[in-house]
Structure formats: C-alpha cells, structure tokens
C-alpha cells in the first residue's frame, strides 16, 4: 500500500517508527512537511523518504492512503488533494470539522472521487461501539476529560478555577462538544471524534476536569440509548518524547494503516 504522511511532528514520527519496526506491508512514498531543510534528518528519515510541501504533488505520487497529523489548517487542502488524487484520507486533526461546512465540503470531494474519509479513534477507545450503538436511537453521550491540574495551565481553565490550589477534582466546564472545541481547542480533536460517532457536536456533552492527583489523561465515555448503556474509561500515557501527545493517538493511526494493508482486519 502506498502511503503519504502529512506532518513530521511527534505523532507522524512515531507512526513512521512503528510501521518500520513492525515491518508493516506499507510503502511510505512521501512525507509532507512545511520546511524540508529543517525536517530532513529527523528521526525516521534514515530511509530518505521524499519530502513534499504542496498538496498538488499528490497527484503524481498516486498514493492509496494519505494520513494527516499536521494540525487543523492542513486538513482541507491536503484532504481535498488526496481525494482528488484517488486516495483515501485519514485526518488526525478532526478539530477542523468544528468549522461550519468543513466536513460537508470534504465529504463532497470524497463522493465525487468515490473515496473515503477515515476517522480514527485517536486518543479514545470504544468509538466503534458508540458508532454501532448510534444505528439505533441514542439518548445521551457524555465525554469527561480529566487531566492533571498543571496540564490545564495556559488554557481557559485558568480563568475558571484556581489550578494551583485545587484539593479535589474540579469540573470547570460542562457544555456541548462544539462549545468545548471552540473554547478549549487543545481538546477539540477528541470532542469532535465523540460527536461524529454519536449524537453530533451540539447534543454531545463534554465535561473538562482538573484533578491535582491525576498522573495521566483520563477519558470517560458514557452513552445510553436503545442499545443499552456503556461506560468506557481510558488512562492515557503521553508519547515518551512529547508529553503533549497521547501514545494511543499514534497507535490508532498504525492500526488504521495496517488494517488497510493487511488481509485480516480487527
């Protein structure tokens, strides 16, 4: 399978490393970067994978799959170019879909090209079960994001609670997934993934919690509906070389890529 990775940050680098270590049946034919001179020589570049900077270059590369891990500004230009080039497109930066019409625009290109936009679970789990449950009527979907109090520094949480003097878990925000994505953009990706799998961005409830005793980022997903009730809890550790990124995000991408290339899909 011919693969192009968009982005050379922590997640993209880890995905490349894992695919190589696992000897996945994938040919990484190019990486899209902003600054080729700076990005050449980073970890994972030992095989001299060609670097590209323009979405228009995808057409001549003929990829089967394009994976984005470069930030929300990259989603539409690279996604539209990938679909036009006959590739499926897997965006990590689902926060781009908080913008009205962005997802519809990308899906219109997918329909025209008869290709697919693939949403991975990212740092979450149970998204397959939530998406399956949504085939019947869902009543509620609640997504709680709990992080160490210090992890919320530099965000809107500082204006809503005293992060330095908390003695117990404190929910400083409760609202829709759309509101969470707009007010706390660093959590927008997970908010939009949950929303897309279930009730949508306006009917999905997000709770953001600062916990002075937490040592990992916790996601708790609770859903009820005609299927029954589910409750899923994950305590995610960060990438070893980048504490701002969840290791599970990179692993979810590796799973998606391998599922597109292997004869057995799980």
From TrEMBL:
<keyword id="KW-0560">Oxidoreductase</keyword>
<comment type="similarity">
    <text>Belongs to the L-aspartate dehydrogenase family.</text>
</comment>
<dbReference type="InterPro" id="IPR011182">
    <property type="entry name" value="L-Asp_DH"/>
</dbReference>
<dbReference type="InterPro" id="IPR005106">
    <property type="entry name" value="Asp/hSer_DH_NAD-bd"/>
</dbReference>
<keyword id="KW-0520">NAD</keyword>
<feature type="active site">
    <location>
        <position position="219"/>
    </location>
</feature>
<dbReference type="Pfam" id="PF03447">
    <property type="entry name" value="NAD_binding_3"/>
</dbReference>
<dbReference type="InterPro" id="IPR020626">
    <property type="entry name" value="Asp_DH_prok"/>
</dbReference>
<feature type="domain" description="Aspartate/homoserine dehydrogenase NAD-binding">
    <location>
        <begin position="7"/>
        <end position="118"/>
    </location>
</feature>
<protein>
    <recommendedName>
        <fullName>L-aspartate dehydrogenase</fullName>
        <ecNumber>1.4.1.21</ecNumber>
    </recommendedName>
</protein>
<dbReference type="InterPro" id="IPR036291">
    <property type="entry name" value="NAD(P)-bd_dom_sf"/>
</dbReference>
<feature type="binding site">
    <location>
        <position position="123"/>
    </location>
    <ligand>
        <name>NAD(+)</name>
    </ligand>
</feature>
<comment type="pathway">
    <text>Cofactor biosynthesis; NAD(+) biosynthesis; iminoaspartate from L-aspartate (dehydrogenase route): step 1/1.</text>
</comment>
<feature type="domain" description="Aspartate dehydrogenase">
    <location>
        <begin position="167"/>
        <end position="254"/>
    </location>
</feature>
<feature type="binding site">
    <location>
        <position position="189"/>
    </location>
    <ligand>
        <name>NAD(+)</name>
    </ligand>
</feature>
<keyword id="KW-0521">NADP</keyword>
<dbReference type="InterPro" id="IPR002811">
    <property type="entry name" value="Asp_DH"/>
</dbReference>
<keyword id="KW-0662">Pyridine nucleotide biosynthesis</keyword>
<dbReference type="Pfam" id="PF01958">
    <property type="entry name" value="Asp_DH_C"/>
</dbReference>
<comment type="function">
    <text>Specifically catalyzes the NAD or NADP-dependent dehydrogenation of L-aspartate to iminoaspartate.</text>
</comment>
């Amino acid at each position: 399978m011919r693969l192009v990775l968009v982005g050379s940050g922590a997640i993209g680098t880890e995905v490349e490393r894992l695919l190589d270590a696992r000897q996945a049946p994938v040919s990484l034919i190019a990486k899209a970067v902003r600054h080729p001179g700076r990005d050449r020589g980073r970890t994972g570049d030992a095989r001299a994978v060609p670097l590209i900077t323009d979405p228009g270059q995808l057409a001549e590369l003929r990829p089967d799959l394009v994976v984005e891990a470069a930030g929300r500004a990259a989603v539409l230009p690279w996604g539209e170019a990938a679909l036009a080039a006959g590739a499926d497109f897997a965006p990590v930066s689902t926060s781009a879909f908080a913008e009205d019409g962005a997802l519809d625009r990308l899906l219109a290109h997918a329909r025209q090209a008869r290709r697919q936009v693939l949403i991975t679970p990212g740092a979450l789990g149970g998204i397959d079960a939530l998406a399956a449950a949504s085939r019947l009527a869902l009543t509620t979907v609640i997504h709680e994001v709990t992080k160490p109090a210090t992890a919320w520094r530099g965000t809107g949480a500082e204006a809503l609670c005293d992060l330095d003097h908390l003695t117990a878990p404190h929910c400083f925000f409760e609202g829709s997934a759309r509101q969470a994505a707009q007010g706390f953009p660093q959590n927008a990706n997970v908010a939009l993934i949950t929303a897309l799998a279930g009730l949508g961005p306006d009917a999905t409830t997000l709770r953001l919690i600062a916990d002075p005793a937490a040592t990992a980022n916790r996601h708790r997903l609770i859903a009820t509906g005609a299927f029954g009730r589910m409750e899923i809890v994950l305590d995610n550790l960060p990438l070893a070389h980048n504490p701002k990124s969840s290791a599970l995000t990179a692993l979810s991408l590796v799973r998606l890529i391998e599922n597109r290339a292997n004869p057995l899909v799980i």
